Amino acid sequence: MSWTITRLAAKARLTERTLRRRLSAEGSRFQSIKDGMRRDMAIHYLTQPSMPISQVARQLGFSEPSAFTRAFKQWTGELPKIYRDAA
């Protein structure tokens, strides 16, 4: 997943600055929206036991599984393995 604000702005036919201004006017930030999407997708992928956690990390654009694990713990308070085992 390689979504960047530049790519999203181009898809929306806006300048990056305009997109940032519009998000700011709504009280949002691109990184917060991106993190929310990654969290939701991670939760979805972790309920599919056939997909290894390392593959979930790659699918979500993390360079290392350890970076995904840290992010997931920050988002949910749990480690991905513990979340998967409970699901």
Shape by Cα distribution: elongated
Based on CA atoms alone, the radius of gyration comes out at 15 Å
The succession of helices and strands, N to C, reads HHHHHH
How much helix, percentage-wise, in residues? Answer: 55-70%
Number of strands: 0
Main beta-sheet annotation: none
* CATH level 1 name: Mainly Alpha
Secondary structure class reads: mainly alpha
**Could you tell me the mean pLDDT?**
93
CATH superfamily: Homeodomain-like
Domain HTH araC/xylS-type: 1-86
Pfam family, one: HTH_18
Protein name: Helix-turn-helix domain-containing protein
Keywords: DNA-binding, Transcription, Transcription regulation
Structure characterization notes:
This protein has one domain: Arc Repressor Mutant, subunit A (Orthogonal Bundle), CATH 1.10.10. 69% of the residues lie in helices and 0% in strands. The protein has six helices and no strands. The protein is elongated, with a radius of gyration of 15 Å. This is Helix-turn-helix domain-containing protein.
